[in-house]
User: Fold this.
Amino acid sequence: MMAANVSLAAPPPFDAERVRGDFPILDTMVNGRPLVYLDSAASAQRPLAVLRAVEDYETHSHANVHRGVHALSQAATAAYEGARERVRRFINARSAREIIFVRGTTEAINLIAQAWGRPRLRAGDQILISALEHHANIVPWQMLCEQTGCTLKVAPINRRGELQLEEFLKLLGPHTRLVAVAHVSNALGTVLPLKPLIEAAHAHGALVLIDGAQAVPHARLDVRALGADFYAFSGHKLYGPTGIGVLYGREELLTAMPPWQGGGDMILTVSFEKTTYNELPWKFEAGTPNMSGAVGLAAAMDYLEGLGVEAIAAHEQRLLQLATAELARLPDIEIIGTAAHKASVLSFTMKGVHPHDLGTILDAEGVAVRTGHHCAMPVMTFFGLPATARASFGCYNTERDVASLVQALGKAREVLA
Ligand code: PLP
Assistant:
């Protein structure tokens, strides 16, 4: 029975103003104005909890990992392997052996291309991606095609920036060996329908890699429930440090793959005649790893779970809806990417104004948005644009930030139009 003093009222609304206090960088003044940071899709800011965890590791626990019997080496190893276990819990992987630390999403995808794809694929095999991918999920496959003779297929998107699922399904066939798609588009904010896509790929015997760089900060990830074979993401988009990221892979697949880089830590024994490789996950982590990065990433995960991943996601959805409605009212603004299901990204153009000029004026007002092709040139080509401006939202953004964006757009109109 429930205790009498337990309230059944709805949980308190997400307090982004309080959250801002955890991010000292948000107090920065830019051009004499308070910073309005709307560029978390490029890199999120770090909370004090992450900064302190990194400092604590560097101050008290740093030494090289895995190969020392002395106390500091053991402390460093415990911190690094503890971080791996933290990641495992955060994404609900079955085993810490399925968590490979990498530099980021880009490195994770290259690892799969080279360690899974290169020894296996040959002429006639196909890799299927979508038309809204980041360059990190295009170029490694093009390189693999050059190396092996396999072919890259691209499933189209519609004018709203949604994957055309019917067309995707038509492109799946007996020669499809791998489907590699984004969970969330960084240029458009589109959330892809992963469930049907993964099921269809598996029904055709293809493996699935998900580029989760833009998804993990905005939704609870459960890799077991999702059912993808590989999942990649970057620490710096998840309020953690740069230079650290994660490749999740199903253990039996990773076990069957050869290492992709050779060196220290990824071996068990070395002789000039024969070298034997280490077990998972170290087989894929040649050289001294980024220990403080891993510690910072684990701290970011603690921090996010403390705030509540679902509460953050709901807050960001409210901001996205508010910003979308506000910008839709402006006659000279066109929103690029109007998918029914979006996360935290709002791309747009202003009539007659180059996005770079727009970005410069917004910066003068203290508003940080990203302008450019967002490493998704084929998306820009599809929409016939050289670039867009992109506002993206994180746990520390507020309705005030949306109002500042709208006000700065007004200023840009005065100056540029
Ligand atoms: N994939 C997507 C969807 C991204 O948004 C990004 C970064 O913007 C990447 C991959 C590459 O991430 P990183 O540069 O951290 O490797």
Q: What stands out?
A: The mean pLDDT is 96. The chain is about 40% helix and 15% strand.
